[in-house]
Structures are given as C-alpha cells and as structure tokens.
Amino acid sequence: MTKIVILTGAGISAESGLGTFRDVDGLWTRYDLNDVATPEGFARDPGLVMEFYNARRRNAAEAAPNPAHLALARLEAALPPGSVRIVTQNVDDLHERAGSRAVWHMHGELARARCASCGAGWPAPAEMRVADACPSCGVAATRPDIVWFGEMPYRMEEIWEALRAADLFVSIGTSGSVYPAAAFVQDAARAGAETLELNLEPSEIARDFDRGLHGPASEIVPVWVE
Ligand code: BJW
C-alpha cells in the first residue's frame, strides 16, 4: 500500500477566503506576530489575542471548503484506509468539512479551547473570553488551543513516524518558513519518499522537493489528484 503524507498550509484555504500569513495582504502585515502568536503576547494582552482568534473563528465558520480540500477528501476515499494522512498547519476545519478523516492539526484548532493551568481541552464557544473558567479545574486560565511560536506542535512523534513510513510527501500551500513543518520534506526524503510541492509559486524551500507544480491550489490539487 502506497503511503502518502500531505502537509497543508494557509495557501490551501486562501481561495476559501481565509487569509494567509506572509503574502502581501497576509495576517502578519496587519498584526505583529509577537503580539498575537506567542505565549508572551498572550500574557501581555490576553484580550487582544482572544479577539484575534474570535475573529478568525468567525471567518472560518463562514468559509467553505474549496476544490483543493474536496480533491484531497476524494483521494482519501478512493485509496485503501490508512494510505493518506493529512498533517495540517491550519487551524480551520475545512479539511474535515470537505470529508477528510485522517487529519492531524499540528498547530491546534480554532474550534477548541485549552486550560493553561491543568491542560484540559474542550470545544471553544463562538466567542472566547479571558475570564472563562476551565470546566475541569475551575481556574480562569482559558486560552485558544493554538500552538504559538516557541511552543511544541502537536503529534510530533506520530508525524515523524508517518514521514519515515511515507512513499510520497506532498506539501500544499505553505511558504516553508516555519519549523518544524519546513523540515518535513527533508525528513521524508531522508527516509526514501518522493517529494512534491504544490504551491502558488515556488516556496522558500522549493529546491528541497523532487518536483513542483505551481498555481492556485483549487486548480492544481484536483489536477494532481485525478
Ligand atoms: C497559495 C495560494 C493559493 C497563497 N494556492 N498556494 C530559527 C531557525 C529555525 C527555527 C526557529 C528559529 N527561530 C525560532 C524557530 C522555531 C519557530 C520558527 O519556525 N520560527 C520561524 C519564524 C523561523 N517555530 C516554532 O516556534 C514552532 N515550535 C517549535 O519549533 O517547537 C520546538 C521544536 C523543536 C524540535 C522539534 C519540534 C519542535 C511553533 C510554530 C507555531 C506556528 N504558529 C503559527 C500561528 C498559530 C496558528 C494560527 O494562528 O493560525 O502557525 S505561525 C503561522 O505560520 C501559522 C501557520 O500554520 C504557520 C505556517 O504558515 P503557512 O501556512 O506556511 O502560511 P504562509 O502565509 O507563510 O504561506 C502561504 C503559502 O501559500 C505561500 O507560499 C503562498 O505562495 C501560498 N499560497 N495563496 C496555493 N491560492
């Protein structure tokens, strides 16, 4: 059975109307990532960070999966169970809403909240507030369940194991500027996988891939899948 690991980033959701981070009109041109995507920023101004993620949660709820998400769901459905694993850096749920089942959110999920005191997790309300108490321990230490800079991404051991077992590694819509995800292509290649980049333009790490196909995800991902 051919094993395919697919890494996705903000570019796959761009045509669903969700902003990327580093493009000319990206989120990091309007917000300082140190303010909204670090534990230190959250400690300084938790209200600002909650509002940033509340707005992102509203946008994600209004967005719909695009042909790229749908094509990946068709790929998973067409192949034997266990063949396709999506590792997404995205915090939206568009892969799941497209029908993908095997999805790992390495940078967390807008749809979940977490207690910074006891570690419990639960579904996030539409609007999270700083004063919200943890349903498990009662402490008001609620935070978005998002992996910020300096924090360990989720499921790393399972991801590395999947990369070691992969026959094909495909990266879709990511700039290759954030680690450890940016090193997955090298991890997979070292383990013998073929590597393919699907992105609007050659990314910062395009030369690490065996092959590249460039253009909007909604066009090139269905072409690659079919
Ligand atoms: C399209 C398209 C269309 C557009 N069709 N394509 C120095 C060296 C190395 C590492 C470090 C370093 N200093 C610090 C670090 C570590 C740090 C890091 O990488 N920093 C870099 C800035 C250098 N990383 C971390 O801190 C991570 N944790 C960590 O490393 O833990 C320690 C560890 C050690 C050993 C092993 C494992 C771990 C945590 C990173 C957390 C990232 N968090 C964010 C924000 C939270 C989530 C959220 O709010 O949504 O995650 S940052 C942001 O960047 C977000 C994204 O998931 C992530 C990646 O961005 P992405 O998805 O690539 O988006 P863009 O905008 O960058 O690119 C979009 C691409 O799409 C572009 O190429 C476009 O061309 C393309 N595109 N439209 C197809 N229609």
UniProtKB/TrEMBL annotation:
Coiled-coil ranges per UniProt: none
Keywords: Cytoplasm, Metal-binding, NAD, Transferase, Zinc
UniProt-annotated location(s): Cytoplasm
Active-site residues, as the UniProt record annotates them: H107
Cofactor entry: Zn(2+)
Catalytic activity entry: N(6)-acetyl-L-lysyl-[protein] + NAD(+) + H2O = 2''-O-acetyl-ADP-D-ribose + nicotinamide + L-lysyl-[protein]; N(6)-succinyl-L-lysyl-[protein] + NAD(+) + H2O = 2''-O-succinyl-ADP-D-ribose + nicotinamide + L-lysyl-[protein]
Ranges of residues in domain Deacetylase sirtuin-type: 1-226
Enzymatic class: transferase
Residues given in the record as substrate binding sites: Y53, R56
EC number(s) given by UniProt: 2.3.1.286
Binding site for NAD(+): 9-28, 89-92, 173-175, 199-201, 217
Residues bound to Zn(2+): C115, C118, C134, C137
Cofactor note: Binds 1 zinc ion per subunit.
Protein purpose: NAD-dependent lysine deacetylase and desuccinylase that specifically removes acetyl and succinyl groups on target proteins. Modulates the activities of several proteins which are inactive in their acylated form.
Domains (record comment): 2 residues (Tyr-53 and Arg-56) present in a large hydrophobic pocket are probably involved in substrate specificity. They are important for desuccinylation activity, but dispensable for deacetylation activity.
Full protein name: NAD-dependent protein deacylase
Source organism: Rhodovulum sulfidophilum
Name of encoding gene: cobB
